[in-house]
């Protein structure tokens, strides 16, 4: 068996589920043992945390349907996209 790593943006709507798949008490069918998980934390998240503001997460497909952009393209410029996405759920 090998090992790997995967990362997910903190603004992705599945972030909580993503992080829970490593928990020791997770269902054996969904728990991963040889995969390292990482969270991408953009500057926008740090800014919101410093201001103690509510943060929102987004489903990638919703962004694609509305803006014809992949979440990866949105995520790399979250400083620009975050407020747009929040205003248009």
From TrEMBL:
The protein, known as: Ribonucleotide reductase alpha subunit
GO CC terms in record: ribonucleoside-diphosphate reductase complex
Listed InterPro entries: RNR_lg_C, Rrm1
Domain of life assignment: Bacteria
Domain Ribonucleotide reductase large subunit C-terminal: 2-85
Source species: Candidatus Phytoplasma solani
Primary gene name: nrdA
Swiss-Prot/TrEMBL GO biological process terms: deoxyribonucleotide biosynthetic process
Molecular function, one GO term: ribonucleoside-diphosphate reductase activity, thioredoxin disulfide as acceptor
Family: Belongs to the ribonucleoside diphosphate reductase large chain family.
């Amino acid at each position: 068996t090998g090992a790997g790593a995967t990362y997910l943006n903190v603004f992705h709507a599945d972030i909580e589920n993503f992080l829970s798949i490593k928990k020791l008490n997770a269902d054996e069918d969904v728990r991963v043992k040889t995969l390292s998980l990482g969270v991408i934390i953009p500057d926008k998240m740090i800014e919101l945390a410093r201001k103690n503001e509510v943060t929102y997460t987004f489903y990638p497909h919703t962004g694609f349907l509305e803006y014809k952009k992949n979440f990866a393209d949105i995520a790399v410029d979250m400083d620009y996209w975050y407020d747009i996405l929040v205003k248009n759920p």
